[in-house]
Design goal:
62% of the residues lie in helices and 0% in strands. With 181 residues, it is an all-alpha fold.
């Protein structure tokens, strides 16, 4: 019941990659949190300047807030992944798999909720009744990075489906995906 395409990299390389990813997210979260007043002030200056010169919408402040929200969600997700893996004693099981699926649905929902709140994104889902349990291949076109969260939020969570993904190798840099995916 392991992954369809297991990580075939050497164990040492895998552990080093994961340790680096976890350390990078922890350090980034602490830095963004501690430096929030400076970052927000800088973002405010940028937003005011762009508004005065070109009537550009205020995005910099929201990007700083989204960075903090993303890092917090990733660290919460990572903590839950590690707890799920510890509870499973390193063995794969149906229970462990469903815990990870539900965690991924929560994690994707967390990130999408941040984008929706901060950037005013609205979703309209049509044809929800056509999805459901059973063997199926869902091909989701994504044009932006936030689109990666849509299958788990729009399909998996409402229908209780444990989706499997084919992801780019570069996404292994995100420890929550690397360990939980």
């Amino acid at each position: 019941m392991g992954p369809l395409l297991p990580d075939d990299s050497p164990r040492g390389t895998r552990y080093l990659r994961r340790a680096r990813g976890i350390a990078a997210e922890l350090v980034a979260f602490v830095l963004v949190t501690v430096l929030a007043p400076v970052l927000l002030l800088g973002a405010l200056v940028v937003d005011v300047a762009l508004w005065l010169r070109r009537r550009k919408p205020w995005v910099a402040l929201r990007l700083v807030a989204m960075l903090w929200w993303f890092l917090l969600g990733d660290l919460l997700g990572l903590t839950r992944v590690l707890l799920i893996r510890a509870a499973g004693l390193g063995r794969d099981s149906h229970t462990r798999r469903w815990r990870l699926y539900r965690l991924r649905m929560w994690w994707a929902g967390w990130h999408l909720a941040g984008v929706r709140r901060l950037f005013g994104l609205r979703l309209e889902v049509e044809g929800q009744e056509l999805a459901g349990p059973g063997r199926a291949i869902y091909l989701v076109r994504h044009a932006s990075i936030i689109d990666n969260t849509l299958p788990d939020v729009v399909l998996a969570r409402p229908h209780g489906i444990g989706l499997r993904f084919v992801v780019k190798r570069e996404l292994r840099m995100i420890p929550t995906l690397d360990l939980g995916g």
